[in-house]
Amino acid sequence: MEEATVVPQPVIKAQDLNLVFGSGDNAVHALKNVNLTINKGDFVSFIGPSGCGKTTFLRCIAALEQPTGGTLSVNGMTPDEARQARAYGYVFQHAGLYPWRTIAKNIKLPLEIMGYDKAEQERRVAEVLKLVELEQFGQKFPWQLSGGMQQRASIARALAFDADILLMDEPFGALDEIVRDHLNEQLLQLWARTDKTIGFVTHSIPEAVYLSTKIVVMSPRPGRIHEIIDSPLPKERPLDIRDSAEFIEIAHRVREGLRAGHAHD
Ligand SMILES: Nc1ncnc2c1ncn2[C@@H]1O[C@H](COP(=O)(O)OP(=O)(O)OP(=O)(O)O)[C@@H](O)[C@H]1O
């Protein structure tokens, strides 16, 4: 029997994207001629040296920065329209939970602002707490949770309005290795279950290789895409896949890409 061909559905499309902060002598060319298509269900990691524009690219998608050239579409809309349509959830490096609100109330806040009725707010909070395995912690305050649990709560908050796209800016950068491994595993399971499209910024080669279907290797300022590596790893990834020859080979390619990217300067 012939295998069904899956037609890729572009979700995020950047064409010749440029962003220059400031002008004259103070101009910073943060993104230069970035061309990238992210398809539905992709898990795309962005890796590159500090200051190469990873966060800026994510912020452009989220309409938090305005590109100075090129085009960018999100679910077929402009980033501004996509923001208004709640097309994505955004997870920052630090959990950013309000200390005076319980975990459930933190997750509820954007839902309140968006005008969901009380019953729907409760239903969604319960659902996302379950997804990140924090069902028992809704009534706790952030300070009563570990760093990893707080980060899971912030992921739950981003998932609460059930956007198809999740943008994550180094969400696990501040956590220790073991907690990070665990959260990586959980995030992959969540991605497999929900079929979301994920854009993920990281500094860690193993994290990028473990999580992604596509690894975007960026080069130093002005931020350009040096290479896009498609991962042949299966969707189901136990942690020990990191010891496999295939994994090590991709990690090697990413490292080489990062080195070669540096040579542009
Ligand atoms: N609002 C701004 N005004 C001026 N320059 C900015 C602004 N935001 C970012 N930059 C500059 O743009 C460049 C890209 O920054 P960005 O934060 O996207 O890099 P990054 O790859 O995410 O870095 P890191 O890995 O350190 O988080 C940097 O040189 C940064 O200093």
UniProtKB/TrEMBL annotation:
Residues 12-241 form the ABC transporter domain. InterPro entries: AAA+_ATPase, ABC_transporter-like_ATP-bd, ABC_transporter-like_CS, ABC_transporter_ATP-bind, P-loop_NTPase. The keyword Transport applies. One of its GO terms (molecular function) is ATP binding. Keywords: ATP-binding, Nucleotide-binding, Transport. The keyword ATP-binding applies. SUPFAM superfamilies: P-loop containing nucleoside triphosphate hydrolases (SSF52540). It holds the Pfam family ABC_tran. Gene3D superfamilies: P-loop containing nucleotide triphosphate hydrolases. Belongs to the ABC transporter superfamily. This is ATP-binding cassette domain-containing protein.
